[in-house]
Amino acid sequence: MNTTSASAAATPQPFFITPAEVFSEFSHHHPSVARINNGGLGCCPSSLISSQRQIQLQWLRQPDEFFFNQLQPGMLRSRNVIKDLINADHVDEVSIVDNASTAISIVLQHMAWGFAEGKFHSGDATVMFHCAYGAVKKSVEAYFVRAGGYVIEVPLPFPVNSDDEILQEFRQALEKAKQNGRSVRLAIIDHVTFMPTVVMPVKQLVSICREAGIDHVFIDAAHGIGCVDVDMKQIGADFYTSNLHKWLFCPPSAAFLYCRKSNQSSALHHPVVTHQYGNGLATESSWIGTRDYSAQLVVPKILEFVNRFEGGIDGIKRRNHDAVVDMGEMLAKAWGTHLGCPPHMCSSMVMVGLPACLHVSSDQDSSKLRTYLRGKFGVEVSIYYRPPKDGEVGPLTGYARISYQVYNKLLLLLLWFIDISGKYLSLLQPKATTLPLSH
Amino acid sequence: MQHEYPRNGESTHPSSKKPKLSSKFITESDIRDEFSHHQQRVARINNGSYGSCPNSVLTAQRHWQLQFLRQPDAFYFNVLRDGITASREIIKDLINADHVDEVSLVDNATTAAAIVLQRIGRSFAEGKFQKNDTVLMLHCAFQAVKKSIQAYVTRAGGSVIEVRLPFPVNSEEEIISEFKKSIEEGKSNGRKIRLAIIDHITSMPSVVIPVKELVRICRAEGIEQVFVDAAHAIGSVKVDVKEVGADFYVSNLHKWFFCPPSIAFLYCKKSTSSSDLHHPVVSHEYGNGLPIESAWIGTRDYSSQLVVPAVLEFVNRFEGGIDGIMKKNHDEVVKMGKMLAESWGTNLGSPPEMSAAMIMVGLPSRLCLDSEEDAVMLRSHLRDRYEVEVPIFHQVSVDREEGVRDKDGFITGYLRMGKLAKCFIRNEKAVIKVGAGFHGITSVFCRLLMRAAFTVFKESYKRGAKSSAEELELLTNVI
């Protein structure tokens, strides 16, 4: 183990983690898979897995003692670490839950009660982008629509060239709602959209919501922490959730739900009710029956890990961003395509247009291509089908969402990708016109 | 290796050693290895709360965890769903359900209660139920279930009937009679009982409830649906969901069925309403049925739900499998409970046939346990000072005239003894520790009584076998 890790947080780090140590930390990854889908299910280094095991063993050793003496203080420590990372005012504003899906269910259940208890009226609306995560859309259906609410979907322009294009669409959707006399009770905004992936101008979107008098603003930042800058006071939303296991190296699974202190925030409840019911969401969430809380208790150890890297988590974010943009641009050049958005709207992930000759013309095609790349070439990458709009001539309909995390090796990945895409395209030879590759 | 310690009073004199058992079944040494991660000095007689998990199952769990971490996307697409289905198939057979679609895996009984009650809440909100329609539960229902009723039923305008169960209890008829009375009261004023929540084995105080009969009564009385909270059941009593006949039945597998934390099954009898049950954490699987919804509730560690096949392998290493384990647990806990009750001149909270792997033992009245706080303090003291982990129940005296007495006064406290036979510290050591614990605490109050108790312990121990020097010292110290 890196002996300098002990002094990580307190003093400037003279010796940073070496590439060999990084390799060792992720040696449990499948050695022959080019893993460029970190945005999907995240990753966790060996040292954190070991720390997590120790916690699991402590529980198994004497669970009653652990429950009475260690669990709550441990959860509070984790929450305090997160509070500092996200610049929240008070630790009471920070609850730890399993994942962003759980967080959205909590907020939407609260909305459903609003309808049931007469605070909201049938037809009151929620506004969200059309590319919101599938589970979020289903949660809206299960809780909000079922209770009588209405959904306004805002199209996300893609490919997109500037923040203004997004802001304009959002303003238009709210204007239309106003004209139709709809009360918008909740805005659900992604910080980093899932598919296609784009960094949204959340601060400005929240301002627009406030101007329009929207009751609650919820930011779904599943990809937020460890990927983009996360500052609760700056963003100014009512609710903000982010997974820690995607980009912050936590084992599966842990996420935080930030709820800005207000009259409303005390009325949120975890849907799994225990004897802690009524003691505030943060306390309710830290005990939802007998289960393994080790992933949530290991959070303080994450800081030790990230601080072994130069610049800590900020350094990691910056290097990931630079590397993935480099990769994306090289691939786009090699294929004669383009990126889905400008670099400043990319996080640690980027959308790279796939050559048209791949004929990705449906969601099914994109799934098939993904499976094929996994099975045949050992490449794990998410593929996105972008439906053509009316009147468009020869648009790109397929994009690869590539990601970069500390365990990736840029040059190797590029060579690999270009190599396999060459092989793949040659397999499609009858369909191809001109192979764009040259290497 | 032959028995190192006497079991059940057997002599370890070489000439009386039994012939070496075939290696077909798990040995005591194997068992010690399987639970070597337990804190050795602690007399762990509270298996009912958080359960236990053997090393071989933990190893299987790690294997699943590493598989996920190795290539999570491939795991999600190719491995996870089949693994969960395999676990559900095993459980379906264990509980005698008709179809695997009736079996969902969730984290714990608390989650299952939230699923069932959330639906009740929706029914009120959507006008299917009227204000003041009722949910019936036992007064000793688990606290989380009570809070869940508050969160979903009371908040939505429903009312609650509590059935007051007698305790200590002497027969199933006492429970059945109280239950019928409460239903009558509940139905007065024209209230409709929409759901009855019945424990199979109550938590505190712990008693095995005649669920089959109570479910039958519910049906006869026109109660719409019945939910059996059997958190403690599987691995502790026989579970036959068709025989019990409830609409919903939940049990934790991490309590008495050796699974790691945490996993429970929620059985939902096939019907029109069962399709309207949803997991409160909504994913893209919403609408595909509760078993499928529950099998993916976002990115998390599902490994504890995948190890059920490994658990089955483990229990089948015991003679008689899970049935054999259940019988041994029951026999030993009853024996231990009787031993303590006799030593103290107190009582058992229920007859042996109404206990499974846990039993309530009356505490000497001289302990003067007057409140819930006293019970919590006693428990902490036993843990910290005597390394005994045992939950303590404070019995509120409803009518002092009818309370149970020992020779010094009313019995107001019970301990809940629940341990896995052979799995941890051996019986006698646990009993001595428990006795020592109580002696230490009560030494201010009743030296005479506890001295008598320990005389009894010493005698029974001597009859059992040789004591180690350490144990004699322990005995001498406490008197």
TrEMBL record, chain A:
Pfam family for this entry, one: Aminotran_5
KW Transmembrane helix (keyword) present: no
Residue ranges of every copy of the Aminotransferase class V domain listed in the record: 75-267
Residue ranges of coiled coil: none
Keyword NADP on entry: no
Keywords: Pyridoxal phosphate
Protein name: Aminotransferase class V domain-containing protein
Organism: Hibiscus sabdariffa (roselle)
TrEMBL record, chain B:
InterPro entries in the record: Aminotrans_V_dom, PyrdxlP-dep_Trfase, PyrdxlP-dep_Trfase_major
Keywords from the named record: Pyridoxal phosphate
Originating species: Hibiscus sabdariffa (roselle)
Keyword Oxidoreductase in record: no
SUPFAM superfamilies the UniProt entry points to: PLP-dependent transferases
Boundaries of every Aminotransferase class V domain copy: 83-273
Zinc recorded as keyword: no
Protein name, entry field: Aminotransferase class V domain-containing protein
Classification lineage: Eukaryota, Viridiplantae, Streptophyta, Embryophyta, Tracheophyta
Positions in coiled-coil regions: none
UniProt superkingdom: Eukaryota
